[in-house]
Amino acid sequence: MNYHWDWAVFFKSTGIGDEIYLDWFVAGLGWTVAVALVAWCIALALGAVLGVMRTLPNKALSGVATAYVELFRNVPLLVQLFVWYFLVPDLLPERAQVWFKQELNPTTSAYLSVVACLAFFTAARVCEQVRTGIQALPRGQTMAAMAMGFSLPQVYRHVLLPQAFRIIIPPLTSEFLNIFKNSSVASLIGLMELLAQTKQTAEFSANLFEAFTLATLIYFVLNMSLMKGMGWLEKRVAVPGLIGSGGK
Amino acid sequence: MIRFNSVHKWFKDLHVLNDINLEVKAGEVVVVCGPSGSGKSTLIRTVNQLETISQGEIWVDGVNVADPKTDLNALRAEVGFVFQHFNLYPHLSVLDNITLSPIQVKGMDKAAAEARAVQLLEKVGLAHKKDAFPAQLSGGQQQRVAIARGLAMDPRVMLFDEPTSALDPEMIGEVLKVMKDLALSGMTMMVVTHEMGFAREVADRVVFIDHGQVLESAAPAEFFSAPRTERAQQFLRQVLTPMR
Amino acid sequence: MRFHQKLIASAVVGGLLVTPAFAEGTLDKIKKTGTITLGHRDSSIPFSYLANSPQPIGYSVDIANKVVDKLKKDLNMPNLQVKYNLVTSQTRIPLVQNGTVDLECGSTTNNLERQRQVDFSVGIFEIGTRLLTKKTSGVKDFPDLKGKNVVTTAGTTSERLLKSMNAEQGLGMNVISAKDHGESFLMLETGRAVAFMMDDVLLAGEMAKAKRPADWVVTGKPQSFEIYGCMMRKGDPAFKKTVDDAIRALYKSGEINKIYAKWFQSPVPPKNVNLNFPMSPEFKKLIQNPTDKSAEQM
Question: How confident is the model at residue B243 (pLDDT cuts 50, 70, 90)?
């Protein structure tokens, strides 16, 4: 194939100010991380609450959580993003609409929409992990804690959740990686994260393979470090003596 | 200390507890025995309302536990409960297993709770294991920790639900010894068990139940030598000569 | 060096792209296989798009078919088969390079970066980058955009120009990069941006599709001119000459005016809207003096 390879392309001028293409990748990575991390924190907190709700004896609360999961898990992510970005702002009061659409920096409004979208989408998935984690625990744990005079919130806080979260670290790790990959939907509403910057570099430089190779490499290194980090966390909180807990 | 007044419990069509009338006085040790499925585990769990009842009253230290207005958490804090499967919290060290409730429920100071926990561990012979985790202990050791955990709340009464049934035979003795010491110290105890040796030696009274009914309630000497009902006689024949 | 690069290339793309031998030129290949593969787009209205049939239609497709007619005659192959291969803005260059597509006529701007990868035919269209805005917005030209939200489509020259204007003239615009022209127009319509900068012909297309075309106006001095060309593999002068000659012939005979009127000044499928986009003076000049250079080289 008579492709013109040029690995030095990343150090060439983009033609905009004195930026080089590598600057775009750095900026893109920054947005990817900023989107994924913030959305993850919200997803984790919301998902934990919903997961607990699904295991509660109260039918109304568990029903609400179930409905949430069904809704957010079954609507494609892209559709959700367009709802958050184009539809939700239109439901705001007039004044807030003007603020969100015109006064707010468009990058900020795109950022808020993406974070909300990913956080609510991923929360549904985290919820299911938390629920299975709690349900995997022997009933005796709840009984023992109740017998010691714990209220239901205390049972969850001190006995069920610490154990459930240890069990679900591996599936949570994959959700964590997913949120980084899913953050690339941001490019569709104009947030210049890593994938958007890659496409732009490919388009402007006509060195498509170099651009996508670098992006692949960055995503790979990013995912590997996240996995390593989660592996370290899993080891750190491992319970001594338990099989499969990674610790001694 | 504990009084059952005409207690009934139905589970769907099944009459699990049928007109239970029973009293455990302060300082008394009562062993509850009966064939499996007789309702004895259900019975002991109604005392701290891990199982609800359908009808009747259960009074624990002057409080009707079946009354919806009763603060169950406060009641349970006063009633120690030891499970067949220990149910220690696997993610906490032995010490934390024991101090968790005193600190969280009673608002006890951490240092005081730990000092008390060490004291209790000495009592059950496991002070050297305070930093171990449950999965690193044998079944007998876990059950002794579970007893210490129950005692840490300074309960008025201790309930034991088949505390030795899940243990290997060589570990049963160490647990029974701890229970015996506890009985001698004057603790009010209600014990569901098949350990007839323990019943004979330690119990003030033996209660035999079957099909949810109390069939016998007598001093051990009387119960073992002259059981009045046919079913109790049959039960005793089976548990005392298991090999036949 | 070349060997190393090939190694890297195969490692990188994981064998996705087979490397055919190009000892022979495209003309030989066409003779041998009896087939030519044309690259087309799915929604570059009215240049190259899919409407009601599986076959692509559009201005650029018509031009490509004229090239095919010439090939039939030159090669004496009346039964030359035409295969259509869909490309996107990301796949069009590699698919030409690796031999999947022989000729891509769509809406591809001829620029220096791309000239390093492929050869371009003489220009088939020329656009200017301008603004689409609401008639009531008060925006007349680019300086009016200072501090405003402006939308453009990601990966286009307009995006680069807008960002450069910000960097060089300190206009302080907020540039929104939408994923495609439709979304750019949606941003404009929903009030997220006051203006949409893009190739004037594409702006005319979006305007024609709008619910009330009369509400909108294309305005502003063109910030750049771009020449669209057909792409083919680099270093194949015989094939390039055939393509160029076919296009030049259209210009010389005036047949181009008929094709132009059909796509830019008459209702076109699928919605039968009329772009009402008369030929610009720049394109008229290009027809007088056809060139395969990019606009920046002129």
Answer: low
DSSP state, A13? B
User: Based on the domain organization, do C11 and C118 belong to the same domain?
Assistant: yes
Our CA angle for A137, A141, A147, nearest 5°, is 160
Same domain (yes/no): C148, C281? no
Pairing state between β B14-24 and B2-11:
antiparallel
Query: Which CATH number is C185's domain given?
Result: 3.40.190.10
Is residue C16 located within the same domain as residue C30?
yes
ipTM over 0.85: yes
Percent of chain A predicted with pLDDT > 70 = 97
Parent domain of C162 = 128-225
Those residues with Cβ within 8 angstroms of residue B120's Cβ, 6 or more apart along the chain or in another chain: B98, B148, B151, B152
**How many whole angstroms separate alpha carbon A136 and alpha carbon A131?**
8
Enumerate residues 186 to 245 of chain C having a beta carbon within 8 A of any beta carbon in chain A: 186-187, 190-193, 233-235
* Of C283 and B241, the one with more pLDDT: C283
Range from A31-40, A86-95, C19-28 carrying the lowest mean pLDDT: C19-28
User: C18 with C107, same domain?
Assistant: yes
- Average pLDDT estimate for A14-26: 89
The predicted model scores a pTM of: 0.83
Q: What distance in Å separates the CA atoms of residue A202 and residue A20, rounded to the nearest whole number?
A: 13
Q: Which domains does chain A have, with CATH numbers?
A: 7-237 (1.10.3720.10)
pLDDT digit string (tens) for C18-30?
444 445 799 999 9
A165 close contact with B: CB closer than 8 A: no
pLDDT at C1 over 70: no
- Asked if the Cβ–Cβ distance from C116 to A4 is below 8 Å, we say yes
Counting Cβ atoms within 10 Å, is residue A112 exposed (0-12), middle (13-18) or buried (19+)? middle
Q: How many domains does chain C have?
A: 2
pLDDT of residue C15: 39
Domain borders along chain B are 2-240
Q: Is C165 on the interface with A (CB under 8 A)?
A: no
In this complex, the residue of A3, A102, A189 whose CB is nearest that of residue C149 is A102
Average pLDDT over all residues of chain C: 89
Q: Minimal Cα–Cα distance from A76 to chain C, Å? A: 18
Class of domain B2-240: alpha beta
Contact residues, chain B to chain A, C-beta under 8 Å: 48, 50, 73-79, 81, 83, 85, 87-91, 100-101, 104-105, 132-136, 149-150, 153
Q: Which residues pair with B210 in a beta bridge?
A: B213
Q: Give a yes or no: residue C1 inside a domain.
A: no
